[in-house]
Design a protein that fits this description.
This protein is about 20% helix and about 30% strand. The protein is of the alpha+beta class. A seven-stranded antiparallel beta sheet has the order 4-5-6-10-9-8-7, sandwiched between helices. A four-stranded antiparallel beta sheet has the order 1-2-3-11. The longest helix has 27 residues.
């Protein structure tokens, strides 16, 4: 297997119609295959969710000479402001009420927010990354120049009620990194793993490296369980760019939340 980072992007496929409820831990997850991406791979950019156009607003101003008091003029001006405001705001209210199940919007400076209403999660990614479609992944965004800089979200069914039902953070992260998040021919090292509670929901965050023959990917991940789904978000960069990217990648991981 070639290890050129410009030709490979390793992820794991979504397991359908199965539950993670058997021993040893993640027995079924370990069978997920790594997906090879090359210039001939079927990657496509989804269609734009749409462009909001501006509606033209025309005005007819009629000049008349009449003995109108200053108070009457003020009243007329205020009424005009209300009419114009309503005419401009109303179309936006209509468009917002028809928000799609998943969409990206501007977030904090330098980031975009992804909100998936169907699967009830949200996260941010660095501005400039492009969305790509990869079979088995729910969402993938990546840098078009640096192939190892990316973020992906994967969902698989589970019968567990919380991430704690799988075990402690380090045990789960170690298994996930070795059997799912990196190819078997790469040397993996778990750097850290910790538990986090946010709004009554438990998340496990972890950091690891995956060393190939001619590059090392430094990555972060976060996992949780909600409503019968096991959520995994991973993001990372080439080790040579870690110092430059680590703050942004930590922002991505910290932003991942269940939204209900």
């Amino acid at each position: 297997m070639s290890t050129d980072p410009h030709n490979h992007y390793h992820i794991y496929k979504k397991t359908k119609h199965k539950t993670i409820n058997q021993s040893p831990l993640f027995l079924r997850m370990s069978s997920m295959a790594s997906l090879k991406l090359s210039p001939s791979s079927p990657i496509s950019i989804p269609k734009s969710s749409g462009i909001i156009g501006r509606r033209g607003v025309s005005f007819l101003v009629r000049a008349e000479q009449s003995p109108t008091s200053s108070s009457d003029l003020q009243d007329k001006c205020q009424r005009r402001r209300v009419v114009v405001t309503l005419g401009v705001v109303a179309p936006w209210i209509s468009l917002l009420s028809k928000a799609p199940a998943s969409f990206a919007a501007e977030s904090k400076k330098g980031f975009m927010t992804v909100s998936d209403n169907k699967d009830a999660y949200a996260f941010v990614y660095p501005f400039g990354w492009q969305e790509v479609v990869i079979e088995g992944q729910d969402k993938v965004y990546k840098d078009v120049i640096e192939p190892l800089e990316s973020v992906s979200v994967n969902l698989i069914p589970t019968s567990k009620q919380t991430i704690k039902d799988f075990g402690p953070p380090k045990e789960i992260a170690e298994t996930l990194v070795k059997k799912v998040l990196a190819p078997p021919n790469q040397k993996t090292t778990l750097i850290d793993a910790a538990e986090q509670e946010v709004d009554g929901k438990t998340y496990y965050q972890f950091e690891f490296t995956a060393q190939a023959r001619n590059y090392t990917r430094h990555a972060l991940g976060v996992i949780t369980v909600f409503n019968g789904k096991f959520y995994t978000l991973t993001t990372g960069a080439n080790e040579r760019r870690w110092e430059k990217m680590k703050d942004r990648l930590h922002t991505v991981v910290d932003s991942f939340k269940i939204t209900v």
